[in-house]
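Practice problem: predict the structure.
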Amino acid sequence: MLKLWYDTPANEWTQALPLGNGHMGAMAYGGAEGRFDLSENTCWSGAPQEKYLADHAGEDMRQARMLLMRQNVEEAEILLDQCCGIKENYGTQVPMGRLLAGICQEPLHGLRELDLVTGVATDTLTYETGAVRRESFLSNPHKVMCVRLSGQAGARLPQLRIWVEGWSQPSKTEWVGKDLVVKGRALENIHSDGLHGVSYTMRLRMETDGMLSWSRKGVLVDRATSLVICLTAGTDMFHPDPDGQCLARLDKVQSMSWDAILAAHTAEHADWMNRCTLTLPSGKSSTLPTDRRIAAYEKDPSDQALVALFFQYGRYLLLNSSRPDSLLPAALQGVWNDDRACRMAWTDDMHLDINTQMNYYPAEVTGLSDCSKPLFAWIRDALMPNGQMIAQQLYGSPGWVAHTVSNARGWAAPGWDGHGWAFHVTGGGWVASHIWSHYLYTEDHAFLKEFYGVLHGAAQFLVSILSENPETGELVTNPSYSPENAYLVDGKAHTITTGATIDTVVTKVVFQAVIKSAEILACEDAFVQTLKTVLTRLPDFKIGRHGQLQEWNADFEEALPDHRHTSHLLALHPFNLILPEQSQVLASAVRTSISRRLGENAKDIVLANWAGALLILYHARLLDGEAAMDFIRPMITFLSRANMMITHEGPTTSITGGIYELDGNTGFTAGVAEMLLQSHAGEIHILPAIPSDFRQGEYMGFIAQGGHRVDVKWDPDTIEVMVCGGGDGSLVIRYGEVRKTVRVQRDQKVFLTFQTTSSR
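Answer:
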């Protein structure tokens, strides 16, 4: 049963239940108040800037790069401080408003639930006069939020109170015709000047057989047996008349019945969610309310069905943050906004040093491939054009660049506040690598042709910032930085160097993607020929004095041994440059790096939600299911909140504790998927990192590279596999050390059986 359920209302954001449609988000609190915190993914403060860099930044960068090649890091860092971005109107995604669909009487008790398959939240409140039912959902087909309050068996409802208002930004609520209309601005002065931001509209329309009246607390509804609310919202980021757009949506659905709107919503939502299923054994705690079930998991690890629920929850959150028709990709908190992340030193934006990428990690393998479309469109239409400007102005380079962070408008300049975190020069190449990954799973030639220029431009820039190491002849990225870590030289911490491992890894991946894409598309040119030569001169992986995979090209000591970022290990996942069974020495070095991060005094890495997800992913790639399971448990018992949202915890991370980020949940989902299916090494590997806790189970609809659908059912003795061909060809299906070769045709099903390792 894919439901979250509770016998108490939510008192805070991380207890509320998320609804979404890829455009709007709502956090449903339930209870008598009937509160919904509303957000919309284009509700951003800030504005495009005329100037992102100081006039002298290009010359300062040129000098800094020369100093770095002479290993004069301190002087180079001084110059790089002058090359940072100008944070004038960067902005952030902000909350839009709040809806109250309340009952003016406290219930005797209540139940609330969220059905992940249908995307419908339901509250059942019990009164002496009978039960009141509140149903709510956000429809993607009609772009409206719908809430219905109804009495048991048509009984009359207690007095209701309805209100909608803006959040902390300037706004006004008023009657316009038959609608409650909120108009406001997305303004804040932490990440912008307080004067710039989108204008937004929310429109609410009610249908009821009751009587309406005004009060200071909102619109009162008396003597009703039913009340239906339809609400929609928009901004002027992409539409010149959001109010007119909202009015048209409400007019369209007014002629439709509740049942018709609900049916269209549930059909669309369930189609996505049912594409991929996972069943794991239930335990004695599985019948508890979800908050108590989470609390009990530490003592009842038999409840592996909770892991499956978290797996599907990550899919649910990605789906409702990023539909194919979303206007922007998922921000740091997805489509929702807790009004905290947007008020930190960092913002609710697109972080390009892990978070945006991890938001989309589970998309291809779990049947949500098309949900990545907003990401690709944003890279091409917003990030790349700004990146071309920054590449030219700052580096004198062709192609395009993006650094550590970006926003709705495609900010591509380095970060601000000094060189310490600003110069992740491969942030653009890293996020663009998702284009190649999407092709590997879909083999969609038209898509690859459409987005080839994005990869080509990223490669052009990366070639231009390579410098020759005079001692080794290697070509190294210059400047370079390993997010968000620092190294020590003579006891002093530095962040800038040349040839940090993550930059070399991304550069290799982008070059390989361009070379292979050009071959597929038959468009190889002189530049692509050059890439083949340059690729051979990039540094190899190096093993340091502790036996660790080096994070930097030189064997530096880490300033923070337990740092939450492990960017150098991305060579293992997602980039496949280290294949443990082919590179056992490098795999051992990866294990040593992880072990050193997890020393006895480790705090930083175990408190970050996405960092925990990475540890699941790394151990899955190392084919160590038991170790992967060791990090699934604390993500559930320690980092997840009552509503199953996985949060950061303080105090050693860069934020205060308990703030939600989407990537914790999507990374968790990707990690579980990686334990159950891998296809990156030229074969379809079934249950590659299966822990003993998953003693039996079943999944359906997992996708392997090439678009092949894989269904697997297992128990302690036997594994039954079905592969439905995504195309014609020969496939190697593997379990353990047993490999079977089969021929498949598109949409043809092939069935295989393996004996488990324990039964052989």
